[in-house]
C-alpha cells in the first residue's frame, strides 16, 4: 500500500499531487483503531523529521511533532508527508510562497481553494483516503467544495475569539465520523435554507443555487422540516471578524506575502480597545443567530461560484483580494466565529454546506450522510 502511494505521488508534480513533502520511509505501525491509515499532515503543523514551511519557503523549520499529530499516531495512523497550504493558512486559495501553486484536479488550471488545498487535492486524486486539514475561516470546507470531496469542521471552543479547528478532508461522511469517533444519530430536523450571502457584497451563481435547491427538496422528501430563512445579522459582525483576524496577525514576523503583510499592517494599526470590542462582538454572534433562526441546521451553498483560475485572487491588491475571497466564500466563516460545526458535501453537481445551529454533531453528520449517501 505504501509503495503504491509513493509510486502514484512520484508520477505527479507537486502542483498536481498537493504534497510539499513525502517521506521515503514508512513509519512503524502502532496498533490502534486507524489500523495503519496513510495520513498526510497539513503544512501548518509540525511533524518530527519533516520540514514545516507554514506555506512559505522563507519560514521553513524542522520542529517536534504537534500533540495533535502524536494523538493520530497513537491511534494507528502512519504519517506519510505534508500537504500544501497558503502562507500561515491566511487565504482561501493555495499558492504557497516559493513553492508551486496547487492545481485543481476537477477544474484544471483553477484554484483548489484553501488554505487546506493540498489536502483536498490529495484526497480528490485518490492518493490518500483521508488527509488532515484545519479550518479558521472555511479552510477545510472551501477546498473540499472546490475539489468535490467532503470537508468537516468540528465544533471548537471559540473563547477569546479562537477561530481554528483541526479536522480532515475525506471522500465519505462515514470516514469523517470514524476520524472524529462520532456515531450517527438520525432524527427529523428543522432545516433553514439560506440562498443569500451572509458576508460580502457578491451574488451567487445559478449552479450553486440549484445544488442548494436540490438538497432542500431532497431533505424535505426525507421527512425533514425545511424552511426559508433570511440573513440573521448585518455586515458589522463580519467587519468585527476582519478586525479580530488582522489583530491576530499583528505579531507575525519576517518577510511576508502581500496579503499577509497587509493583514499584519492592519493589525498593527489597531488599538487594544478596538481589538477587544471586535472579539466581544464576535463572541455575541451565536446568541444573535439563535434568536433569529428557530432551526437545527442551516443549509447553504458552500461557495458562491466556481473556483477561479490560479492567480485570480493574488493578482489583486490585498484589500480587493480579501474582499473577493469573501464574495467566493460568504457562509463558512459564521461557524468559525461561533465555534459551531459545519460540513461541506458534494451534491447536485456542486457542493452544499450544512451548519449546526442547534443540532448535535452526530445529528449533523447523520443528515449529511442522508444526502451524500443517497
UniProtKB/TrEMBL annotation:
Q: Does the keyword Hydrolase apply?
A: yes
GO MF annotation list:
amidase activity
Does GTP-binding count among this protein's keywords?
no
Please write the reaction equations for the catalytic activity of this protein: a monocarboxylic acid amide + H2O = a monocarboxylate + NH4(+)
Sequence intervals crossing the membrane: none
Q: Which Pfam families match?
A: Amidase (PF01425)
Q: What class of enzyme is it?
A: hydrolase
Q: What is its EC number?
A: 3.5.1.4
Any idea where the Amidase domain is?
31-157, 176-348
The record's InterPro entries line, in alphabetical order, gives: Amidase, Amidase_CS, Amidase_dom, AS_sf
Enumerate the PROSITE patterns for this protein: AMIDASES
UniProt keywords (A-Z) are:
Hydrolase
Which family does the UniProt entry place this protein in? Belongs to the amidase family.
PANTHER family this protein is in?
GLUTAMYL-TRNA(GLN) AMIDOTRANSFERASE SUBUNIT A, MITOCHONDRIAL, TRANSAMIDASE
Protein name (record): amidase
UniProt source species: Corynebacterium kalinowskii
Starting at the broadest rank, the lineage of the source organism is: Bacteria, Bacillati, Actinomycetota, Actinomycetes, Mycobacteriales
Amino acid at each position: 500500500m505504501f509503495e503504491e502511494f509513493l509510486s502514484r505521488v512520484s508520477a505527479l508534480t507537486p502542483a498536481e499531487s498537493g504534497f510539499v513533502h513525502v517521506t521515503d520511509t514508512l513509519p512503524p505501525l502502532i496498533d490502534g483503531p486507524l489500523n495503519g491509515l496513510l495520513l498526510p499532515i497539513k503544512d501548518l503543523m509540525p511533524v518530527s523529521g519533516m520540514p514545516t514551511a507554514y506555506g512559505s519557503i522563507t519560514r521553513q523549520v524542522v520542529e517536534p511533532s504537534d500533540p495533535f499529530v502524536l494523538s493520530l499516531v497513537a491511534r494507528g495512523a502512519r504519517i506519510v508527508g505534508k500537504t500544501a497550504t497558503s502562507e500561515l493558512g491566511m487565504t482561501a486559495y493555495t499558492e504557497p510562497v516559493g513553492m508551486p501553486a496547487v492545481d485543481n484536479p476537477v477544474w484544471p488550471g483553477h484554484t483548489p481553494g484553501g488554505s487546506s488545498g493540498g489536502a483536498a487535492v490529495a484526497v480528490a486524486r485518490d492518493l490518500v483516503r483521508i488527509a488532515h486539514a484545519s479550518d479558521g475561516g472555511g479552510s477545510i470546507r472551501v477546498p473540499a467544495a472546490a475539489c468535490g470531496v467532503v470537508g468537516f469542521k468540528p465544533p471548537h471552543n471559540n473563547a477569546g475569539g479562537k477561530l481554528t479547528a483541526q479536522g480532515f478532508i475525506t471522500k465519505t461522511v462515514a470516514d469523517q465520523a470514524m476520524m472524529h469517533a462520532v456515531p450517527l444519530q438520525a432524527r427529523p430536523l428543522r432545516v433553514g435554507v439560506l440562498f443569500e450571502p451572509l458576508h460580502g457584497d457578491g451574488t451567487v451563481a445559478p449552479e450553486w443555487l440549484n445544488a442548494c435547491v436540490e438538497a432542500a427538496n431532497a431533505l424535505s422528501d426525507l421527512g425533514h422540516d425545511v424552511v426559508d430563512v433570511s440573513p440573521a445579522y448585518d455586515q458589522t459582525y463580519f467587519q468585527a471578524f476582519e478586525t479580530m483576524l488582522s489583530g491576530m496577525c499583528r505579531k507575525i514576523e519576517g518577510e511576508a506575502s502581500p496579503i499577509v503583510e497587509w493583514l499584519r499592517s492592519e493589525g498593527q494599526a489597531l488599538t487594544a480597545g478596538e481589538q477587544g470590542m471586535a472579539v466581544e462582538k464576535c463572541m455575541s454572534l451565536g446568541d444573535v443567530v439563535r434568536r433569529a433562526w428557530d432551526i437545527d441546521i442551516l443549509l447553504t451553498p458552500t461557495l458562491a461560484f466556481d473556483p477561479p483560475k490560479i492567480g485570480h485572487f493574488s493578482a489583486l491588491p490585498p484589500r480587493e483580494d480579501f474582499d473577493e475571497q469573501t464574495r467566493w466564500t460568504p457562509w463558512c466563516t459564521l461557524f468559525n466565529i461561533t465555534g459551531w460545526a459545519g460540513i461541506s458535501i458534494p451534491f447536485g453537481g456542486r457542493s452544499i454546506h450544512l451548519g449546526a445551529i442547534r443540532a448535535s454533531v452526530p445529528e449533523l453528520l447523520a443528515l449529511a450522510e442522508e444526502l451524500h449517501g443517497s
